[in-house]
Amino acid sequence: MLFTSSEFIIFFLPLLFLIYFLVPKKFLGVRNFVLFAFSLIFYAWGGVKYLALFAVSMAANYLGGLGVGLAKSKNVKRLWLILTVGVGLGLLGVFKYAGFFTSTLAHTGLPVKVVSFVLPIGISFYTFQGLSYVIDVYRGDAALQKNPLKVCLYIALFPQLVAGPIVRYTTVEKELSSREHSVTLFSDGAVRFMLGFGKKMLMANPMGEVADRVFSHTGSELLTAPSAWVGIIAYAMQIYFDFSAYSDMAIGLGKMFGFRFNENFNYPYISRSITEFWRRWHISLSTWFRDYVYIPLGGNRCSVIRHIINLAIVWFLTGMWHGASWNFILWGVYYGVLLILEKYVFGGVTEKLPRALRHVLTLALILVGWVFFRADSFSSAVQYLSAMAGANGTSPHEAVYLIMQYLPEFIICFIGIFPVKRLLEKKFSANAEHSLSAAFFKEFAPKLFALGVFALAYMKLVSGSFNPFIYFQF
Amino acid sequence: MKRENIAKISSVSLSVCFVLVLFLLAALTVLSADETFSFFENRNLAVMPTLDMEGISDGSYFTAVGEFVKDHAAAREVMLKASALMDLKLLRRPVVNDIYVGEDVLLPYFEYETVDMEKIAADAVTVAEKIEKTASITESYGGKYYFTAIPCQYMCYEDSYPWYLNSRNEYLDASSSAFFKELEARGVDLIDMMEYYEESGRPEYFSSTVDHHYGIRGAYDTYLEILRRLGEDTNLSFPTLKEGDFDLTTLEGRYIGSRSRKIFGLWESDERLQLILPKDAPEFKRYNNGYAVEASLFTLPENDTDDVLYTTYMGGDVAHTMIDTEREELPSILIYGESFTNAIETIMWYSFDEMHSLDMRYYKDMTVDEFIEIVQPDVVVCVRDYSVLLLTDDYGL
């Protein structure tokens, strides 16, 4: 189920509110059960048959956690960990990568039968979440959780189930057993949810329409340079506002039910370097790789060569995590190379450049990266980049139409990539210190704004048909 | 009032509003679950799917439920209109719901396309062969066949598109010239109304600003041109409805054409649907699909000020219509094609004893060739608009 589907907004959410909040606060276990049951319904909406695999994943992580937590010797603990990680990554490998590997091998001429599985929704997210629990128990960062409902709820909790953010067990460990429910928290969550909902419907989706239109011309003479640039800028907007909207909604929903998830984005497009970009983009994924892959490999506290190898491994895996396709791997490797170059080759030089130029350079590199990410294949990416360079001419017709048609969205998205909201909040808070009317304004304006945005987004929801979530495919 | 209290009040108010809105949406959705048709979208709304295990297993059942909920979502039609109104008046988008909103006309929006000349050439041969066969069947018993090409609305208003939009002229030029060349090579008589309209110097005069069909002037001049050619090419005699022989009646209600319908009639237009009513109209009988029905050529609105649709002409699309004037001294005619025939039928019947009309999108009893062989009309006219000349999926043929 999508957060931005009619059935979620109109039936799922009110029904969940009704049942969840009818259960008295003191029966947190029952509330947890209600959340878990609704999370399963939320997941099963995409097809009940995928529940079996999900259940296996949850069971493996619960049992793995028990094995790791109850084992007396370090070796047995390690064995349980390897087994659990093996099951998790094995399932991910089979369902997400088996087709890719077998077709790659078949392409090389080996007598391999190409297999294909339907990718279960959210498998990359829930696998990583489950693993973080078992690894944290192994490391002693988290206590063993013997209650299967709590482990399963942690993995299945619907706000972050299918498209992240990847919530660490340690983040919600305490809240699974004892959490605050308050009107303030609920209200904050509702505002965050409504703004995320609006971001998705009013910003990401229109930008997606532009990007899809332009990318559909890849390989044809219709993809002229102005169109290609408009298309990739639109895609950059789409993927940011789409994914960050999902994170906003997840964080908002979490708050409404008493959970506090970490932020997943921090205005990535204001970055002045690729390193900074990855500190601001999909934070839950990059920190997951940092803590569970990069640092265990030795991080940067090693020789230069070893560090470069560590970075290469992490970015190869980051690319692969996003999809079983060479262009995703290339995209990951592209960032790996850029980060290595930034660290060891031209980092010192770029730091001396004017700030504006560093922004522009960083954005240009990010846009090139998105071409690999969005294109259907490596050859399509090359065709698209050629078009950006003017290989198909510079006829501006379609680009002009797309800009004129989507001008309001382009303007809003342009404003939205800057931390305007943060600045306004700061200003309102400062004003509120001095005057009561400003305090009123500070409290009521954002909430009324969120309600207005929600109304507009609902209007778009029922009147539009273009509504895909990009990160569902991962 | 303390600042903490303000924060508390605002949080409570927002929470109550948010939850209330959700419950209100749920209630209104349940209440509108029995609606079945959306007029402005001109489509049936999704129905609640029947429960099946396979659908539950693979998720298709839930997808269908989602479609149902979306189609019956609370205040959906209000939201659709509000969205179109916002795009039209506030954001002033050039294209709203796939309609380009010009200064004085509503035109369809087309994505840029690659014109495939090889496909056009191949399709032109396929369709021309089909037409040639129908024409030779007609001529085998002494009948006369014409293929009539009507310029579609956006051809007549080609210059109204802004420079950055695709007016499809490249495709239309290529497809029509390839097709007409094939017809000519096969000796099929063509009546090209674009040539006629262009000669007048104002093709838009014949078309509608809010609908994809021609206006009554377009239909009337097509009628005159067909009869002129018939007079030149045959010895048939028939009365012609000339200027002065009819009253031109303008309906009072707003004309909601296919273009304005897509934007919920929100675009202001003073165009009204017109009817040609012969002053000395002969009596006639009408049969729809073989059944006698009321002898009328128009479906008029209940009230004078009600909205009017193109379906006013002949009551809309009917698979087989027959108008019988019982004037056996006159020839008979078959007009076939798609909805462009409707307007011209309301005039053409006047000149013939029997007028058959087939809408080949709906007529499935037999092929048009079989129909012609059985009925043997004296005159057969295929009416096609330029945009569908090369459709090879039997659309209107």
- Number of separate structural domains of chain B: 2
Computed over alpha carbons, the radius of gyration of chain B is: 26 Å
> How many β strands of chain A by DSSP?
0
Question: Roughly what percent helix of chain A?
Answer: over 70%
Name the helix and strand elements of chain B from N-terminus to C-terminus, one letter apiece.
Answer: HEEHHHEEEHEHHEHHEHEEEEEHEHE
Largest interface, chains and sizes: A-B, 57 and 52 residues
Question: Outline of this structure?
Answer:
The complex is a heterodimer of chains A (474) and B (397). Helix content of chain A is 74%, strand content 0%. Chain A is mainly α and 474 residues long.
Explain the overall architecture.
The complex is a heterodimer of chains A (474) and B (397). By secondary structure, chain A is mainly alpha-helical. Chain A has two domains: 6-179, no CATH class; 186-416, no CATH class. Helices cover 74% and strands 0% of the residues of chain A. Chain A is globular and about 65 Å long. Chain A starts with 5 loop residues before the first helix and ends in an 11-residue tail after the last helix. With 397 residues, chain B is of the alpha/beta class. Chain B folds into two domains: 3-81, no CATH class; 117-388, no CATH class. Chain B is built from twelve helices and 15 strands. Chain B has helices at residues 3-31, 53-58, 60-71, 76-90, 117-140, 153-156, 169-185, 193-199, 216-233, 258-262, 340-348, 368-375; strands at 37-38, 43-44, 95-96, 99-101, 106-108, 144-150, 190-192, 246-250, 274-278, 285-288, 291-293, 320-324, 333-337, 354-359, 379-385. In chain B, the strands form four sheets. Chain B has an eight-stranded mixed beta sheet, sandwiched between helices. Chain B has a three-stranded antiparallel beta sheet with strand order 3-4-5. In chain B, strands 1-2 form a two-stranded antiparallel ribbon. In chain B, helix 5 (117-140) packs parallel to helix 12. Chains A and B meet through helix 1, helix 9, helix 18 and helix 21 of A and helix 1, helix 2, helix 3 and helix 4 of B.
